[in-house]
Amino acid sequence: MALPVPVVRWVTVSRKGKEKETAAMSASPATEYGVLVGDPPLVSFGWGDLLLQYAATFAQQIRATLFQELGYRASAGVSYNRFLAKIGSGLNKPDQQTVILSSQAESFLYSYPVTNIPSLGGKLGALVENAFGAQTAGDLMNHTVDQLALKLGPEQAQFLYNRCHGIDDSPVEDSKEPGTLTSAKNFMRFPVESLSKLDRWISMNSVDLWTRVIEEWEMRKRWPRSLTISFTPRGQNQRSKTTAFPLRLAKGAQNSPDALAAAVRMCLSTSDTEADSAGRGRPPRHQSIPMTQTSGMFPMIGFSLTAKSFQRELASASMMERWLIRPRNNAGNNSTATDGARASRAKQQVKVQNDPTEQMG
């Protein structure tokens, strides 16, 4: 017996605050699951739309958690493939989500600018505009793949055709291992004037970067070897210093980002030559320069910390770590047991020397 086709209801809600501006521009209905693009019915049918409704509920929960726990507002996009969801995520910022139903995809894309479509914002987008005089995806919908291929080649023609018709079969995959992790802060409106005023941001960025490094360690057992501190003085190009990232087994480094913040402060208060030497694993060759004598850094309009040169832990390193962090009381017990065994052997030797019977036997 076939299952009945589900009925999916999209109940409208009133918009508030900044959402009213978006509503005036898009005239798209806001529902309890997000903004629906185009002119969709408030009742739709099918398992696909039901899945999107569940996905929209999940996205709402993620956004609500971000705001409750971190105070961050976020937008989201929900659709039946990756690239439409990506488009949707940017349509109703900063605190709303957009749902693109399959029944509304082509009508929505018809007036959507070609160069705003993911992967068409660069040279390919400019080529499409010049070759076909197209401004929107709708300008290309009447072209067949063969017609597009005459000017773009078969591979790019198929890609463009699929994008304009809302087709994308690329799978959702786990993100690849990052080569670097960065925590950055811009001070464009209120530049930082001194190292003492930068200190609070050193602490905050260190906490942020340290948290992400710990997550990377717990997920993939990788730890960075290098730390790059970058800063941009007002009216100048960005400058950088590199030093060694704190060792994971260093005392105090495992449980606190203080070791990272200390490394940043030390690197910023030393000469470029010394910092470069430390970044290569060599001991510094010059004495530290007092923080008050740092020059050329301020006023500062940008600051970032980057962890790089990640290295995966080897099995032998894991064994060494377990040996180094074994509980002290166990170590004490082992030491006591060893001392007891030595004392017992010494007593037996004394007994043998003083017992003539055992000496004769």
Q: Decide which structural class fits the backbone.
A: alpha+beta
- Flag low-confidence runs: 17-26, 273-293, 330-338, 349-361
Number of domains: 3
End-to-end CA span: 95 Å
- The overall strand count is 10
Mean pLDDT: 80
Helical content band:
40-55%
Describe this structure in words.
With 361 residues, the chain is of the alpha+beta class. It is globular. It is built from 13 helices and ten strands. It folds into three domains: 1-104, Alpha-Beta Plaits (2-Layer Sandwich), CATH 3.30.70.270; 111-171, Orthogonal Bundle (DNA polymerase, domain 1); 181-316, DNA polymerase, Y-family, little finger domain (Dna Ligase, domain 1, 2-Layer Sandwich), CATH 3.30.1490. Strands 2-3-6-5 form a four-stranded mixed beta sheet. The model is unreliable at 17-26, 273-293, 330-338 and 349-361 (pLDDT under 50).
How are the elements arranged and paired?
Blueprint: E1 7-9, H1 19-26, E2 30-31, E3 34-36, E4 43-45, H2 47-70, E5 76-79, H3 82-89, E6 97-100, H4 105-110, H5 123-132, H6 145-152, H7 154-164, E7 181-186, H8 195-220, E8 222-233, E9 239-244, H9 258-268, H10 272-279, E10 300-312, H11 315-324, H12 328-354, H13 356-360
Parallel strand pairs: 3-6, 5-6
Antiparallel strand pairs: 1-4, 2-3, 7-10, 8-9, 8-10
